[in-house]
Write a structure and sequence with these properties.
Length: 562
């Protein structure tokens, strides 16, 4: 039952459609004020009344309905309190009936969403700095799929540029194939850092690097073999991390994929009179200097990120005919995407308005920022290993007899990191701390997972007695708060998709966990009368469903025992 729509339908305002009323209705911040509220500011001027006067008029015209306990005017608001038993019966029936589909819908049916995220760099470490980007993109991927969209996850590999010339020079001067095969990207990182150290003393190394990259561009056999080897080593290593994070991609088409697709784009820009030459370089200027010029070809003939991104956007539209194409990239690239989207608009591509830069913050460690060139990085695989090991230490102390502790520690450790990345607004910078992420008592992943395990334990221990359910047993304020938190979850999924903000799902799941733990402390389940116990067990099962579904969208597992 859609109570929000039902309430909108009973608000009688001349010349005002129920859909307008529904769009304005929100949940009060203070649960004691009711289940829904309608602010009257927008409509008051139409009727020549103050918002408070209009609120009273609306209430005076509302009749009696079995789903409505009361409607009251509080200043400029109409507050609605629903009948607790009606709501409880409806929510439990819906959640338990839909199960794993609770929170899902078909609103996106027939529409395609492309999501460009993670986008690792070949021969560079998959480090902690990538975690926020990867977590946000993967969560959005799952959220849109839950809403019925066809989703294309794209790992736009950083597999082109002079850094590969640098790496070849470094390998030929200081590398050892057997050692690098053994150490993987860590071995490549060491010689890459050494190159930059040596290049400061011997700038000629940069000329050698450019020459080797030119060989890659020209198809030189040795250069291509080394380039392919670097790529193989990287993808093997990052693949292990993606498996642990539960992340998959539908396309690994990276920068090199678009090498033969850039010239047609540049030719078209030239034909349209948008591409101009400046000191040997080629660029696009914007009307009224809206943005700095977008450089597409350097004076030495080399293309840039923007050139490949233009080709990629056109390729994706032609290939997938997307409804939206999202770029999950840190906020430092904001200007780049503004320029990119504007160039496409100037080219007359109406779908340029369907391109979205989903900006996010940066990840740092408590001892400072990350840098590949200086070698100050923390490999993401090491972070996952450490988190799982620390989770195992905690589990050993809390639940020494727990079976399969290693698997549970993996789920808790990895889940703690993901939840820590996704709990706050994506635009915020994140300073990572193991202690904060693995806290079982704070607003963390382990807290929510432990709540789920507590629910599972209750369901396993408390057997139902008959089929009767006495909803009076879940008609109190704590039960109502929990039911409302569960009922709000589907809307949180929808809003997360609308705002490109997975934290909305994370916070909804946290609301459910916190409301459940308050309910758990104030209600006897095992010792209650049979019909009351049955009703309370149904609420526990509904709590499990909301938590499990929400954490699954974030990429977090829910152990049955902790």
């Amino acid at each position: 039952m859609d109570f929000k729509k039902l309430l909108a339908d009973i608000v009688i305002l001349q010349y005002v459609e129920p859909s307008e009323v529904e769009a304005l209705m929100t949940r009060p911040k203070d649960a004691s004020m009711g289940d829904w509220c309608l602010p009257c500011f927008k409509f008051a001027s139409r009727f020549g009344k103050s918002p408070a006067e209009l609120a009273k008029d609306i209430v005076s015209r509302i009749g009696a309905y079995n789903f409505l306990e009361k409607a009251e005017a509080v200043g400029p608001y109409v507050n609605f309190t629903l009948d607790k038993k009606t709501v409880a019966a409806d929510v439990l029936e819906r959640v338990l009936g839909e199960g794993e589909e609770f929170g899902s819908s078909e609103e996106g049916a027939g529409k395609t969403i492309c999501i460009d995220y993670s986008s690792v760099n070949i021969a560079k470490p998959f480090h902690m700095g990538h975690m926020l980007n990867t977590s946000i993109g993967a969560a959005l991927y799952r959220i849109y799929r839950a809403l019925g969209y066809r989703v294309v996850g794209i790992n736009h590999l950083g597999d082109w540029g002079t850094q590969f010339g640098k790496l070849i020079v470094a390998y030929k001067k200081w590398g050892d194939r057997a050692e690098i095969e053994k150490r993987g990207v860590r071995g490549l990182l060491d010689i890459y850092v050494k190159f930059h150290t040596e290049a400061e003393k011997c700038p000629e190394l940069d000329d050698e690097a450019r020459a080797w990259f030119k060989k890659i561009e020209d198809g030189d056999a040795e250069a291509l073999e080394l380039f392919g080897w670097f790529k193989e080593i990287t993808l093997k290593e990052v693949g292990r991390v993606y498996d642990r994070l539960g992340v998959t991609f539908d396309s690994y088409a990276g920068e090199s994929f678009y090498n033969d697709k850039m010239k047609p784009v540049l030719d078209e820009l030239e034909r349209d009179g948008l591409l101009e030459e400046s000191d040997g370089a080629k660029l696009v200027r914007f009307k009224n200097d809206k943005y700095p010029p977008c450089l597409l070809v350097r004076s030495d003939g080399a293309t840039l990120y923007a050139t490949r991104d233009l080709a990629a956007a056109i390729y994706r539209k032609n290939t997938y005919d997307f409804y939206k194409c999202l770029y999950v990239v840190a906020y430092q690239q904001d200007l780049h995407f503004k320029q990119l989207f504007e160039v496409l608009r100037m080219k007359g591509k109406p779908w340029a308005d369907d391109l979205v830069h989903v900006a996010h913050g940066m990840v740092s460690l408590e001892d400072g920022a990350l840098s590949t060139r200086s070698g100050h990085v923390v490999f993401l695989e090491d972070v996952l290993n450490t988190a799982a090991a620390k989770a195992l230490e905690i589990i050993d102390k809390k639940s020494p007899d727990l079976p399969d502790k290693a698997a549970t520690a993996e789920a808790v450790g990895v889940g703690a990191i993901i939840f820590g990345m996704l709990y706050n607004s994506r635009i915020k910078d994140v300073t990572f701390s193991y202690d904060k992420a693995l806290n079982f008592d704070g607003e963390t992943g382990p807290y929510v997972q432990y709540t789920y395990a507590r629910c599972a334990s209750l369901v396993a221990k408390c057997e139902r007695e008959g089929d009767a359910e006495d909803l009076d047993g879940i008609a109190d304020e704590d039960s109502r708060a929990l039911i409302n938190a569960i009922a709000a979850y589907p809307e949180a999924v929808r809003m997360a998709a609308e705002k490109y903000e997975p934290s909305i799902v994370a916070r909804s799941v946290m609301d459910v966990a916190q409301a459940f733990n308050k309910f758990y402390l104030t209600h006897n389940i095992a010792g209650a009368q049979p019909a009351v116990k049955n009703a309370r067990l149904s609420l526990v099962e509904a709590t499990m469903t909301a938590i499990r579904n929400g954490l699954a969208l974030l990429g977090i597992k829910t152990p049955e025992k902790m």
